Amino acid sequence: DTGVSQDPRHKITKRGQNVTFRCDPISEHNRLYWYRQTLGQGPEFLTYFQNEAQLEKSRLLSDRFSAERPKGSFSTLEIQRTEQGDSAMYLCASSARSGRDSPLHFGNGTRLTVT
Amino acid sequence: KNEVEQSPQNLTAQEGEFITINCSYSVGISALHWLQQHPGGGIVSLFMLSSGKKKHGRLIATINIQEKHSSLHITASHPRDSAVYICAVSTGVTGAQKLVFGQGTRLTINP
Prior knowledge:
The complex is a heterodimer.
Chain A: E1 5-7, E2 10-13, E3 19-24, E4 31-37, E5 44-50, E6 53-57, E7 65-68, E8 75-79, E9 88-95, E10 105-106, E11 110-114
Parallel strand pairs in A: 2-11
Antiparallel strand pairs in A: 1-3, 3-8, 4-5, 4-9, 5-6, 7-8, 9-10, 9-11
Chain B: E1 4-7, E2 10-14, E3 19-25, E4 31-37, E5 43-49, E6 52-56, E7 59-64, E8 69-74, E9 83-90, E10 99-101, E11 105-110
Parallel strand pairs in B: 2-11
Antiparallel strand pairs in B: 1-3, 3-8, 4-5, 4-9, 6-7, 7-8, 9-10, 9-11
């Protein structure tokens, strides 16, 4: 068990550029979640996958955001035409498919700064 | 009003003190989580509970479903306990752990 891995740890980009983040969950976990955390706030739910299916998306996820999990393993989160308000920590978490008793395992996050 | 409220927002104490952090929620839940976040972002799950009480080392978590309230206690606090402690609730009806988070409590333990 190598834990949830996120890449990159930090990303600085100019407004208007596209960015893509990657999350590798724990290998036997079929559920994967993306959260966003701004400074001084608790994380907010963005989207959730079970295997390769994206089952739920928050209204926070505007049209500029897209997430994929093509083979039910790693996931990518892309932000197009970044805005300064997108600056945040993007957290990925995974859990096993064992109903409600499976705790979440979080990655260390990708910190995005849009200048 | 947030669906998950924590108190206090900031807490500073001396090493050895007994610490209590409170969490109240206003939505139906399937489970409540206590999480620890250190500087740099990494989040560690401390407890997941849906009733009663759980203990792990010096940490104790309790939940009262009727009152929609949970507490996290730390006994014999130590400077290494300094972190942000976050309460979160699972609201997913399918069993998925879609969490709604509180704003966190920043705990500082001075030696």
